[in-house]
Amino acid sequence: MIARHTKDVTAFWTEVPRDVVHVSGDDSLTYLQSQISQDIRGLAVGASAYSFVLQPIGKIDALIRIARVADQEFVIDTDHGYGEPLMARLNRFKIRVKVDIASLPWRCISVRYAADGIGHGAPAWGTADAFDLIGSDPQAPAGVREGSPAELELARIRAGWPAMGSEITDVTIPAETGVVAQAVNFTKGCYPGQELVERMDSRGSQAPRFVRLLQSSTPLNVGDDVTHAAAVVGRITSSAQQVESGEWTALALIARSVQPSGVVQVLGHDVTVLAARPSEG
């Protein structure tokens, strides 16, 4: 089996599109607190946290990162192409509150495998070596090589971080993603979709499927079926190939009947299933 972590990775940066939303007004804190799965009341100015924005039935509208700019001012970023739907969702529940929601034409420079950290970057993916520099004119860090979007995608898959439109769709629930620990606060109070999240947690319920990591020396392509005991148990949602070694790494949504360390088949080849996130079973 291919090693989960490669030892020869070096720090790199690359500019990637992110959709950025600005939220301000006298009721910004209380309104956002009522709409997202994260508790932001104690979020310090300059700090950020991941959160879900959910449908009332508990399915995911967006996976976001929210940063506090001032007492009543926040900046939210999400995957490219999902900013407008996010704004529409936030505006939909905005009734008799003083809140302004607008898009920002900001840029994002993503830095990965930065062992020494980036002091002014927003932590990314819940890992210690991933940061994003987001603003009107972010600058690449000195002494770090320029990488590529393909390298960033490979790093994301290796980190097991789900992407909107790939691992997360309009039918995905938080428990399937593997990032509940980073994006949900279970003591914060009410928000749309809370009932499903809380019920699954309190009852120890398992999601019907989970994001899992696959690694193979044979091709793993987006859309390929994942089979087990002659039955389709999932589908590959993201895939990347390591150029030097030719090895493939992928994320797949796989039925809970297949646990980490289990063996599945992709295009007739045996592939071992791994937990996508180190904290997931």
Topology overview:
Blueprint: E1 12-16, E2 18-24, H1 28-33, E3 48-54, E4 60-70, E5 73-79, H2 83-92, E6 100-104, E7 107-112, E8 122-123, E9 130-135, E10 145-146, H3 149-159, H4 180-183, H5 194-202, E11 209-216, E12 225-228, E13 231-241, E14 248-255, E15 263-266, E16 269-275
Parallel strand pairs: 1-10
Antiparallel strand pairs: 1-7, 2-5, 2-6, 3-4, 4-5, 7-9, 8-9, 11-14, 11-16, 12-13, 13-14, 15-16
Short description:
This protein has 281 residues and is an alpha+beta fold.
Provide the low-confidence segments as ranges.
1-7
Strand content: 35-45%
What is the CATH third-level topology name of the largest domain?
Alpha-Beta Plaits
Report the CATH superfamily of the largest domain. Aminomethyltransferase beta-barrel domains
Rg from Cα: 19 Å
The total count of helices amounts to 5
Main sheet: which strands, in order across? 12-13-14-11-16-15
Q: Could you characterize the architecture of this molecule?
A:
This protein has helices at 28-33, 83-92, 149-159, 180-183, 194-202; strands at 12-16, 18-24, 48-54, 60-70, 73-79, 100-104, 107-112, 122-123, 130-135, 145-146, 209-216, 225-228, 231-241, 248-255, 263-266, 269-275. The protein is an alpha+beta fold and 281 residues long. The chain folds into two domains: 12-159, Alpha-Beta Plaits (2-Layer Sandwich), CATH 3.30.70; 209-281, Beta Barrel (Elongation Factor Tu (Ef-tu), domain 3). It has a six-stranded antiparallel sheet. Strand 15 and strand 16 form a beta hairpin.
